[in-house]
Amino acid sequence: MKSTPSLQQLITGAQNDREIPTKRNRKKEEEITTSPTSDTVFCDGRRHASLYSLNSTCTESGSFGKADVTGEIEFAIRYVFKACILEICIKGCKNLAYGEDKKKKCNPYVKVYLLPGKSPRSKRKTAVKKNTVDPEFNETLKYKIEYSQLGSRQLQISVWHAGALKYRVFLGEVVIPLAAWDFEDYSMQLFNWYQLKPKLEKSEDDLIQYSGELLVSARLSVPAQHKNFQFEGKKDQGAPNCQLQVMIFGAKNLPLLRPAGMLNSFVKGCLILPDQAEVKRESPVLKKEACPQWRHLFVFDGVTPAQLQQSCLHLTVWDQATFSSSDHFLGGAKLGAKESFGSTDLASPSVLQWQEVLHRPNTWMDFTLVLHSNKENFKS
């Protein structure tokens, strides 16, 4: 988190940014935000196949089977703070079940998802090892992700058998909640063996799907005569009415609804106050952009810190419908006291980020919010 320029400077700079960029600059920016960290994986100083070639080796289509889950997998996890890269180094497996028991055949590979994302963009795979139940992979799979987002993510590391004619058999998985992972502890970066477990059966309705990220900056603007005001507890202690200001910078990794990948997108903001009153704002539509940069300011007037302490801000991203009356929901995120998706965890990122805004008045706070696809959880 860091301070940003004053509101007037921010708005002036945003207007200039819309006038200056060339087509080449916009194309370059899009490539930076949408391209993977690297198309080559490394481990132990050796170069391996590209992530995309690995993905093309083992597709998700075809028929699937099950085997009795046995064996273990060895891997290490680390986070490169300077580059904002999460690395998962898959070393190998042992004592796997046969993917085709009658033939005593097993062609294992490892597949990784950074949950809750289950899109192709979130998927990483190793190469397939032929005819072995004790494969050695020695491959590192990478994700470009901000450190602040790791607390809400899980690593799903699963092992599969690749049979003929796109026949796939699940051999076991390990799920690692990253909120409990200490990336600054060197011992947590070492290789360890993990017991493979059967797949957890969950209905599709229970899955909160990843739908990209929204870049915002927020601050509680307090009048100059109260510049030394410090919010404590649930009482305003004489504070006047304030402004909640939310700058919507842009979004990345949004679902692509059209073959060309271009969206006519806009953002809705809904501030839900303690008395259930709703204050709504909406950004302009930005047309034909896969990675939109709105740089639009939402202003909520006449609010107090005590009110905001019990309020929640819903931010939702939409694609403007061309021929129908209903716009397409792309994803949503929440900031505030009422935590997302039914949880009331006071240590959640949503609550902690909201408290930062309230307890540091007149200071811009930058956030990268994970967008989720469950429309029913949001008001717009």
Describe the structure.
The chain folds into 2 domains: 7-32 and 208-377, Immunoglobulin-like; 36-204, Immunoglobulin-like, CATH 2.60.40. The protein is built from 5 helices and 20 strands. It has helices spanning 7-19, 23-34, 51-57, 305-309, 349-359, and strands spanning 42-43, 46-47, 64-66, 72-80, 85-94, 108-115, 123-125, 136-144, 154-162, 168-177, 192-195, 210-221, 242-252, 263-272, 278-282, 286-289, 296-303, 312-319, 328-336, 365-372. The radius of gyration is 23 Å and the shape is elongated.
In a nutshell, what does this entry contain?
The chain has 380 residues and is mostly beta strands. The protein is 13% helix and 38% strand. It has helices at 7-19, 23-34, 51-57, 305-309, 349-359, and strands spanning 42-43, 46-47, 64-66, 72-80, 85-94, 108-115, 123-125, 136-144, 154-162, 168-177, 192-195, 210-221, 242-252, 263-272, 278-282, 286-289, 296-303, 312-319, 328-336, 365-372.
